[in-house]
Structures are given as structure tokens and as C-alpha cells.
Design brief:
By secondary structure, the chain is of the alpha+beta class. It is 24% helix and 26% strand.
């Protein structure tokens, strides 16, 4: 292949990763041009100086000049608001936790941006993602290209070589058509190697810090950002005590059912093993591990049983009041009676502004261990919290993905109803991969983890891998 005749558009963000991607492609002989996206105008919710698009564009333009490639600017703010930001507001209004970066890649970078790049003559779009793509022959019987007996190629999406920077999670919703036009030039490199290449090439972005926050919006105070559209209504923050679970029917049923599915000699873990996700992720090729559950028993689970195993806890704690007299004047006052299941420990500004597993921004003191959000109730406008990393409310074994939300990157790899498979799964970007069993039913795809998982949040994406290949993803219900 004559690379000089292959035209590649690099999404140049002004960061070091996309800069090195452009430099490498140019060095390999491709016909490269750069395009910078402006996807956000409303800077009133952005913390100025952290992620200003004007500064990013200036750096990107200097990088393009240094490499010697054409530079173009495109405004995709309308598409970004309609396809990403409006979706984000809608999900939070429903009490769910969306991932705008996943949507940005599916709807903007590899759709709207790709369409404009193609108008400029691009054969491919390249980005600075830490992931890899592999082309393999398509399934037999595939018609292939017109006039050709060869089947159409199929594309595998693989983890990046750097386990600390792997970004395949954010590309979990890409289709075969999108992958066919995508290039990931730095996926085989570590972050340190990318920085070294940038310094040696004297790229203006070599020492630029990585961007943080929402894709193209920047580092924002999320409640402030959401209050642009979502109404703030005060409500109670309720701490849930361990005694609650002793009398909760669903918790007892789930524990009993899961215990009955275990292989002989296995014991059911009650709470998640705590491991800070800011630290090193698991490396490629981690063993899948032996399933603690009996695969034969799992195969006979009914859809109703699986659906109930995947239910989150629906907290209902009633607080009764009592009157008492206080002070030397015996002023009559009202207080809540002690409840062994929980207590009201604070106030919040709207349950939709909080997400499961959240620790910061609660404003609750007087605890020996950190306090986490374990549930939100939009109807009652309550936020439920629990103290400690091992609180029972933080842990769940099973989740469900609606049939229409299941996405297979290679459609030929899709599971059929009644089938079950073992994969490694993660439910958020920085989480180490977890061993799990996937059970496909007519009512959805159920993921049963070998060990309890911390902070399963509706609206987030669950992603599953076989070895280093990402096979599919879906929105947690």
C-alpha cells in the first residue's frame, strides 16, 4: 500500500497524545491533515484556565505547523449539545449516571467529525486514544466487496499496551463501520513513550497536562453544571445502618439464592474487596479465574430469578417524631425517634445530583470512616448513604442490561438467548477487570460477578473482554 495516497484526518485536540499520533502518521508517510473540534461554547460552568478551548486550539495549530500538516477548524457544538449534553441532562434527571465520553466518541468523533473529515477527502480518522485495532478475515459466506470473492474484513478492538492508560472503555459503543475508518497510532505505546517522542520531536504540546473533566466541556463542578437545566429541591440525606439488611427481604433472598448457586466448598463474600482505582490497573492477560458458582445451576435460572438478583435495594426507612421539653424554660420541641435501621444525617439540594459510590460533596461529618452514596430515590427526593468501604449497600453481585442496550463490536460474536459465557468485565473506566459470567436471556443480558462489585450505577456502561479484546458493552439498567 502506498501510504502517501492514503489521506488521514487527525483529531488534533492540543494534547500530547493526538499530537504524537499526527507526528507518527506523518513519519510513516501518510497524507495527513489536522482538524480541531470546538464542541462547547457555554463556558460559564467551566473552571477557567483548566480546559479552555481557545488555548487548546492555539496549541493544536502550533503542533500542526511544527509537523508541517494542514490545519482546519470545525464547530460541532450544535451536534454535541443535541447528542451528548442533552442526553446527559436527561439521564441525570432520571436518577441515572451517564458517561458523556462514551457518547462523544460514538456520536461526535466517529460520526459527525468523521463525516466532515470525509468531505475533506479523508480515508481515515485518527485519534490519540490508547487502544489498538486489528483486522481479521470476515466470517465465511460474507459477500465482501462488490466484484470480489474475498469476505469483508472484521475489526477487533483491543486494549492499549499501557495498562494504566488503556482507553478502549471509552470506545465501547463503536460499530464495525466506525472502526473500519479509525486509526489509533499510539495504542502500542505507553504514556511515557509518548511523552518521550513528543520531547524528541520538540512538539509544543510535549509538556501539556492531560485534560480532565467532561469531554470537550472541561473540568466542571457537576452540580453547578447540571443546575443549568435540573431544578434544585432540598431533601434528606439518610444514613443506612447494618441492621436494615437483617430485616430487608430482597437482601436476604439475594444472599440465600446466591449461596445456593455456589460450588461445594465455596463461601459467599458479603461485601466488595476494597482496592483504590486510582492506582495501577490489572495488566493484560490476567487470568479469568474459576467461577465460584455452579454453571449447571446458572443455566437453569429463570428470567424472573435473574431479574430479581439484578435489582438494587429499594430503601424505605420511616422516621417517627416525638415531642420533648428542653432547657430551663422547658420549651416544647420535636425530634425524630431513634431508628435501628438508619437516621437522617443531613440535607441535599436534589437527589438527581448524586451518584452511587460518590464520596465527595456530601458535607457529612462525625464518622470514623468515609461516607458513600449507596442509593438515590428521586420520587421521595432522598439520598441514602453508608459508612465505610465495606458497607453492604455498596456491594452487588448482578446487573442487567436491556436487550436494546446490548452492543457487540463484532456482531458475529453476539450471544444467543439461553447462552452463558465467562468474560472479564468492568463497570467504569478506572476499574480493574473483574471475572464474571454473562447470561443471555430474552429479557436482557445479565452479568453475574464472581465477587461483589462496588457502586454499580444505572446509566453507566458495562464492558466485557475476552483476553485483550473488547467484545461488547451495554448500559446498566
Amino acid at each position: 500500500m502506498d501510504k502517501s495516497k492514503v489521506k488521514v484526518c487527525v483529531g488534533l485536540s492540543g494534547g500530547v497524545d493526538s499530537s504524537v499520533a499526527a507526528w507518527l502518521l506523518k513519519q510513516e508517510g501518510y497524507d495527513v491533515f489536522a482538524m480541531f473540534m470546538q464542541n462547547w461554547h457555554e463556558a460559564d460552568a467551566t473552571l477557567h484556565g483548566d480546559c479552555e478551548w481557545e488555548e487548546d486550539r492555539f496549541v493544536a495549530e502550533m503542533v500542526a505547523r511544527k509537523i508541517g500538516i494542514p490545519f482546519y477548524f470545525v464547530d460541532l457544538s450544535r451536534q454535541y449539545r443535541q447528542r451528548v449534553v442533552d442526553y446527559m441532562f436527561d439521564e441525570y434527571a432520571k436518577g441515572r449516571t451517564p458517561n458523556p465520553d462514551v457518547l462523544c466518541n460514538r456520536e461526535i468523533k466517529f460520526d459527525a467529525f468523521l463525516a466532515i473529515a470525509r468531505k475533506y477527502g479523508a480515508d481515515y480518522v485518527a485519534t490519540g486514544h490508547y487502544c489498538q485495532k486489528e483486522e481479521i478475515p470476515g466470517p465465511s459466506g460474507d459477500a465482501g466487496m462488490a466484484g470480489s470473492d474475498r469476505p469483508s474484513p472484521v475489526y477487533r478492538l483491543l486494549e492499549g499496551a499501557d495498562p494504566n492508560k488503556d482507553q478502549s472503555y471509552f470506545l465501547c459503543q463503536l460499530s464495525q463501520e466506525q472502526l473500519s475508518k479509525a486509526l489509533f497510532p499510539i495504542g502500542h505505546l505507553t504514556k511515557g513513550e509518548v511523552r518521550r517522542i513528543a520531547r524528541e520531536a520538540e512538539l509544543p504540546s510535549a509538556e501539556k497536562k492531560d485534560s480532565q473533566g467532561i469531554c470537550f466541556v472541561g473540568k466542571v463542578d457537576l452540580p453547578t453544571f447540571l443546575k443549568q437545566k435540573l431544578v434544585s429541591v432540598e431533601g434528606d440525606v439518610v444514613e443506612v445502618f447494618d441492621a436494615y439488611y437483617a430485616q430487608d427481604e430482597l437482601y436476604s433472598w439475594q444472599q440465600e439464592t446466591l449461596s445456593g448457586l455456589l460450588l461445594t466448598g465455596q463461601q459467599l463474600e458479603r461485601t466488595v474487596r476494597y482496592a483504590p482505582e486510582e492506582k495501577v490497573l490489572t495488566s493484560d492477560g490476567q487470568p479469568l479465574g474459576e467461577c465460584p458458582f455452579d454453571s449447571g445451576k446458572l443455566a437453569f435460572l429463570t428470567e424472573d430469578t435473574l431479574a430479581r438478583l439484578a435489582l438494587p435495594f429499594n430503601y424505605r426507612i420511616d422516621f417517627q417524631t416525638e415531642t420533648y421539653r428542653s432547657g430551663k424554660h422547658h420549651v416544647k420541641k420535636t425530634r425524630y425517634k431513634d431508628n435501628p435501621c438508619g437516621r437522617i444525617v443531613g440535607r441535599h439540594e436534589g437527589a438527581q445530583f448524586y451518584t452511587i459510590g460518590q464520596r465527595k460533596g456530601l458535607g457529612i461529618g462525625g464518622h470514623a470512616e468515609p461516607v458513600f452514596v449507596i442509593a438515590t430515590d428521586l420520587e421521595a427526593n432522598r439520598v441514602y448513604v453508608g459508612e465505610g468501604h465495606h458497607h453492604k449497600g455498596l456491594s452487588r453481585f448482578c446487573l442487567r442490561i436491556n436487550p436494546e442496550e446490548v452492543h457487540w463490536i463484532r456482531p458475529e460474536a453476539a450471544m444467543e438467548a439461553g447462552e452463558q459465557r465467562r468474560y472479564r468485565v468492568r463497570i467504569r473506566y478506572r476499574q480493574p477487570l473483574q471475572s464474571a459470567t454473562l447470561l443471555c436471556r430474552e429479557s436482557g443480558l445479565y452479568i453475574l460477578f464472581d465477587t461483589p462489585q462496588r457502586g454499580i450505577s444505572p446509566g453507566q456502561f458495562a464492558v466485557w473482554y475476552e483476553g485483550t479484546e473488547m467484545l461488547g458493552s451495554g448500559v446498566i439498567g
